Amino acid sequence: MSREIETEMNSVRESFDLVLRRPNYVKNVIGLYMLSFYGIKRSRLMRASYLPVRKVDDALDGDAPRVKNPLLYANNLRNNIARNQLGKSPEEQLLRYSLEALESKAKPNDDPRGDFVRAIDAIIFDRERASMRRVLSAEEIEQYYRNAFDPVINITLLAIDSNLRSGDIPVLSYGQGGVYSARDFEVDWQRGIINVPGDVISSAGLSPHSSFEEVGENPKIIDWFHQSLAATKPDLLEAQLLLRQSGEKQTQVVGNSLISPMLKYIEAY
Fold first, then answer.
1. Does the pLDDT value for residue 1 go beyond 70?
2. How far apart are CA 192 and CA 133, in angstroms?
3. How far is CA 105 from the centre of its chain?
4. 111 in the Ramachandran plot: left (φ > 0), alpha (ψ -120 to 50) or beta?
5. 207 to 192, 203, 204: CA distances (angstroms)
6. Which residues lie closer than 8 Å to 91 by C-beta, 6 or more apart?
7. Are 166 and 172 in contact (CB under 8 A)?
8. Residue closest to 71 by CA, chosen among 124, 118, 18
9. Considering the chain, what is the average pLDDT of its residues?
10. How many other CB atoms sit within 10 Å of the CB of residue 134?
11. Per-residue three-class SS string for the chain
C-alpha cells in the first residue's frame, strides 16, 4: 500500500472519529477536504497535520472519551515527535507523513517538528493551569495565545506552500486567542481555563473561584472583552489586505477562513 493511500485511509478514519465526538466540527473536516481544489497534496498534508493535534486538544478537554489517559497520551505523542520515534497508530502515521512532507520543503527558518512539539506543549499547559485555576497577567495571556497558535499557523502556511509565516500575520494567533476566549468564556471558566487578566478579575471584585454567574454579567469583565475585541478588529482587516497582496490564492482562502468568522463574531459581540 502506498504512503498516500495509507494516509488517506487514516485521514478518513480520524475525520470520522472527530465528527462522531464533535459533530460541530463537520464543517472543519469538509473545509480540509475542499482544499483539494488548491492541490490534492496540500489537502492531504493539511489533514495529516491537523487531525492528530485536534485529537490531543479534545483528549485533554475531555472530549475524546476513547483516550483513557489523556495527559499520558499527550506527553507520549509529544515526546515521540521530538525524538522522531512515532509508532503505528493512525494519528502517529499521519504525523509521520506530515513531518516528512513538511521537513522536505521547509525553509531555513522553518521548524515543523518543533512547531508540533510547541503546539502540544501549549495544550498541556492549558490542562495544567485549568487544574489549578491559574490566573495569568495580560502579557502572559498574549504570550500564551502566541505559544498556542503560532506553531499551528506556521505548520498550516508551510503545508499550503505559502511564503508567509505567523510572524508576518501575528493577528492570526492573538486574534484567534482573543475571539475564542470571548466565545468560549463560559465553558473555559467552568473548566478552569481563565483568559481574563488577574488585575481585571480583582478590580471587578472577583476571584478565580467566583461562579460564572457572577463573572459573566460583571460590567468590568464585559468591558474588558469589548475593548480587547475592538482593538483586534483593525488588525484583522489589515491582515485581509496583506493576504490579498500576497498573490497566493490558497493563502487567501485559508487565512480568510479564519479571519471572516472572527470579524463576524466581533461585529455581533
1. no
2. 5
3. 22
4. beta
5. 12, 10, 9
6. 10, 14, 51, 52, 55, 77
7. yes
8. 124
9. 96
10. 15
11. CCHHHHHHHHHHHHHHHHHHHCHHHHHHHHHHHHHHHHCHHHHHHHHHHHHHHHHHHHHHHCCCCCCCCHHHHHHHHHHHHHHCCCCCCHHHHHHHHHHHHHHHCCCCCCCHHHHHHHHHHHHHHHHHHHHHCCCCCHHHHHHHHHHHHHHHHHHHHHHCCCCCCCCCCCHHHHHHHHHHHHHCHHHHHHHCCCCCCHHHHHHCCCCCCCCHHHHHCCHHHHHHHHHHHHHHHHHHHHHHHHHHHHCCHHHHHHHHHHHHHHHHHHHHC
Interval 144-201: pLDDT, tens:
999 999 999 999 999 999 999 999 999 999 999 999 999 999 999 999 999 999 999 9
Return d(Cα 33, Cα 29) in angstroms, integer.
Answer: 6
Q: Hey, what amino acid is at 250?
A: Q
CA Rg value for the chain = 19
C-beta of residue 147 within 8 angstroms of C-beta of residue 210: no
In order of 46, 141, 242, 265, the CA distances from 239 in angstroms are: 21, 21, 5, 16
**The three cell numbers locating residue 218:** 460583571
Burial (0-12, 13-18, 19+ Cβ within 10 Å), 11: buried
For residue 115, name the pLDDT band (cuts at 50, 70, 90): very high
- Cα-to-chain-centroid distance, residue 13: 21
Grid cell locating 60:
485533554
| Dihedral (CA of 162, 168, 173, 179) sign | negative
CA proximity to 44, closest of 85, 3, 92: 3
